[in-house]
Automatic annotation (TrEMBL):
Molecular functions (GO terms): N-acetyltransferase activity
UniProt domain N-acetyltransferase: residue ranges: 3-158
Name the record gives this protein: GNAT family acetyltransferase
InterPro entries: Acyl_CoA_acyltransferase, Diverse_Substrate_AcTransf, GNAT_dom
Domain of life: Bacteria
C-alpha cells in the first residue's frame, strides 16, 4: 500500500468527516458530534478559514487525517494545535499516523511554530504509547476548560 500525504481539499471533507465520526465512536462520544461536512467546508475554505488538514491517501481513498489550526502562546509564540489525528481502524499500525504527524511537524518548521500541541484521552493507551515513543511530553499540570454552545448563549455579560 503506497500512502501519499498531502494538504486536504474541500473534495476530501466527506471522507474526512467519516474519519472524525469514526474517532468519536472510538472515544465513546459519537452522540456529541454536531458538525457537518458543510460547516467544515465553510470553516476550512470559506471567507475566514480557521483550520487546515492533511490527508493520507491510498488508491483514491483517504485512510487518515491530521486536522490542525494555529494558536498563539504569549510565552512561546506561534503554535500549531493538532485537533485530530485519525487513521482508519483497519489501517492502524501501518505507519500512517507517524507520516501524518511528520507532516504536522514539517508544517511547524515551515511556519516557525514554537510548539505542536494536542490532547489525548487518559484511557487511550495505544495513542499515549505512540506519542511517548515519539518523545512527546504529556502534560499533567494543565486542566482544560471550555464553554459549550448552551453556556456561551446563556453567558452573563458584565
Amino acid at each position: 500500500m503506497s500512502i501519499t500525504i498531502r494538504k486536504g481539499t474541500a473534495k476530501d471533507l466527506a471522507q474526512v468527516f467519516e474519519l472524525v465520526k469514526e474517532l468519536a465512536e472510538y472515544e465513546k462520544a459519537l452522540h456529541e458530534v454536531e458538525n457537518s461536512v458543510e460547516r467544515m467546508t465553510e470553516d476550512a475554505f470559506g471567507e475566514k478559514p480557521i483550520f487546515e488538514f492533511f490527508v493520507a491517501e491510498a488508491d483514491g481513498k483517504i485512510e487518515g487525517t491530521a486536522i490542525f489550526y494555529y494558536r498563539y502562546s504569549t510565552w512561546k509564540g506561534k503554535a500549531i494545535f493538532l485537533e485530530d489525528l485519525v487513521v482508519r481502524k483497519e489501517k492502524r499500525g501501518a505507519g500512517i499516523g507517524k507520516k501524518l504527524l511528520d507532516a504536522i511537524v514539517q508544517e511547524a518548521k515551515d511556519v516557525d511554530a514554537r510548539q505542536v500541541m494536542w490532547q489525548v484521552l487518559d484511557w487511550n493507551e495505544p495513542a499515549i504509547n505512540f506519542y511517548k515513543k515519539l518523545g512527546a511530553n504529556l502534560d499533567e499540570e494543565w486542566i482544560n476548560c471550555k464553554l459549550e454552545l448552551k453556556q456561551i448563549q446563556e453567558y452573563k455579560m458584565g
